Amino acid sequence: MGKLDGRVVIVTGAARGQGEQEARLFVAEGARVLLGDVLDEQGEALAKELGDAARYVHLDVGREEDWAAAVPAAKDAFGKVDGLVNNAGILRFNELAGTPLEEYLAVVRVNQVGAFLGMRAVVPELEAAGGGTIVNTASYVALSGMTFLTSYAATKAAVLGMTRVAAMELAPKGIRVNAMCPGAIDTPMTNPAQLDPGADLAEASEAVDELYKKLVPLGRIGRPEEVARLALFLSSDDSSYVTGQPFVVDGGWLAGVSVF
Ligand SMILES: NC(=O)c1ccc[n+]([C@@H]2O[C@H](COP(=O)([O-])OP(=O)(O)OC[C@H]3O[C@@H](n4cnc5c(N)ncnc54)[C@H](O)[C@@H]3O)[C@@H](O)[C@H]2O)c1
């Protein structure tokens, strides 16, 4: 028996990285999953690989119209929606004083507005299904500062704020809302060499490993599968008494400052 048998979950940003691993694990645990992304070719291929329990739709999380089409698509395919993982996100590095407004707003549009629109779009369906779960993806930098990440940190703090409010408002409807705060996770976001066909991947991974060996108490970067397992916990009955909270998955990075 799977931990998500009978559930129907929308996962955004599901074409690669953490979203891909969430979609894979959720299907393996018995859920039917609507994968949304803007990377249509990759998303379609993944849904095809996952079989009848998966569908892909083009879903730009910052567009209301896309949500208005994606939720009915999930219902048409699988009969209901009772879960959402707001995973889609983008990162832009820039010093505060040099960040153009357009760049700041572009990050807000995906990370913050996208999470808001997603929650708003699914609530009536989750309520109609008799309850459900929402898992938002915040970040380590929602809880701690990091240089050159003004726009990103602002949006991830906003995600935590929305998570708390949504959890309180939706608890009477049987809907639990939690947030994940990953540290450094080995995906194209943190390790862009993964997207460069000419890159020496082994060398790039070694450089990343070396960096996080020093920074993170557990001595390595995290794997997207490790975040997916937290998303599974927060989407399943294993977390039945848990709502409104941020969950850090960072190998101990936030625990403190090492002097060695
Ligand atoms: N990788 C990390 O170290 C890390 C750490 C903390 C938090 N996060 C968060 O985890 C989530 C997943 O990131 P990842 O590491 O898998 O990165 P990633 O770049 O590999 O994946 C992000 C996915 O989101 C999709 N996406 C981007 N804009 C979109 C939009 N407008 N609509 C729909 N999909 C869109 C991308 O196409 C991609 O498939 C993000 O919210 C990110 O901010 C990542």
TrEMBL record:
<dbReference type="InterPro" id="IPR002347">
    <property type="entry name" value="SDR_fam"/>
</dbReference>
<protein>
    <submittedName>
        <fullName>Dehydrogenase</fullName>
    </submittedName>
</protein>
<dbReference type="InterPro" id="IPR020904">
    <property type="entry name" value="Sc_DH/Rdtase_CS"/>
</dbReference>
<dbReference type="GO" id="GO:0016491">
    <property type="term" value="F:oxidoreductase activity"/>
</dbReference>
<comment type="similarity">
    <text>Belongs to the short-chain dehydrogenases/reductases (SDR) family.</text>
</comment>
<dbReference type="Pfam" id="PF13561">
    <property type="entry name" value="adh_short_C2"/>
</dbReference>
<dbReference type="InterPro" id="IPR036291">
    <property type="entry name" value="NAD(P)-bd_dom_sf"/>
</dbReference>
<keyword id="KW-0560">Oxidoreductase</keyword>
